[in-house]
Design brief:
The structure is a single chain. The chain contains 2 helices and no strands. With 165 residues, it is an all-alpha fold. It has one domain.
Length: 165
């Protein structure tokens, strides 16, 4: 082995030149399309993120609208319940007032009936007293009683009237 101490290796030079040629070729032919593809992907991801944010905002808006509708529905339901309660209370008071009026009518009617029955009973008693008076007068006339006999007859008449009551 006795050769030249400084020996130039062409393989290293060929490798370096091949590498540089490959880098140059890649930068001209592959790097541009690769960067374009990466840029398209980046913009596609940004677009999807923007769309997702937009959809999230729309979902938030829909949620707020739904909550507002639910609040309105609850409020309307409470108003309907309150109105129904007032109507039922008013109807209850009306029914109670009508029942009081009807009770008063029945009471007055009963009092009128009682008064009429009392008047009829008094009329009957008066008629019976008149009939008894006529009978006593007949007996007095027929018997032509003396004063003592008339006294007994009057006492008997008073007793009979007292028994009828």
């Amino acid at each position: 082995m006795g050769g030249n101490p400084i020996q130039f290796d062409y393989t290293v030079l060929a490798t370096v030149l091949s590498f540089l040629l490959l880098v140059w070729l890649l930068s001209k032919k592959a790097w541009g399309p690769l960067m374009k593809m990466m840029e398209e992907r980046r913009s596609n991801i940004e677009s999807m993120l923007a769309q997702a944010e937009n959809e999230r905002q729309q979902a938030e808006q829909i949620k707020r609208e739904y909550q507002e509708e639910m609040r309105k529905a609850r409020q309307e339901a409470q108003e309907v319940i309150a109105k129904a309660t007032k109507v039922s209370e008013a109807r209850s008071a009306e029914i109670l007032a009508e029942s009081h009026v009807e009770a008063e009518k029945i009471k007055k009617s009963a009092l009128v009936d009682i008064e009429r029955e009392r008047d009829r009973a008094i009329s009957e008693v008066k008629a019976q007293v008149a009939d008894l008076s006529v009978l006593v007068a007949e007996k007095i006339i027929r018997q032509k009683l003396d004063m003592k006999g008339q006294g007994q007859l009057i006492e008997q008449f008073i007793q009979e009237v007292g028994d009828m009551q």
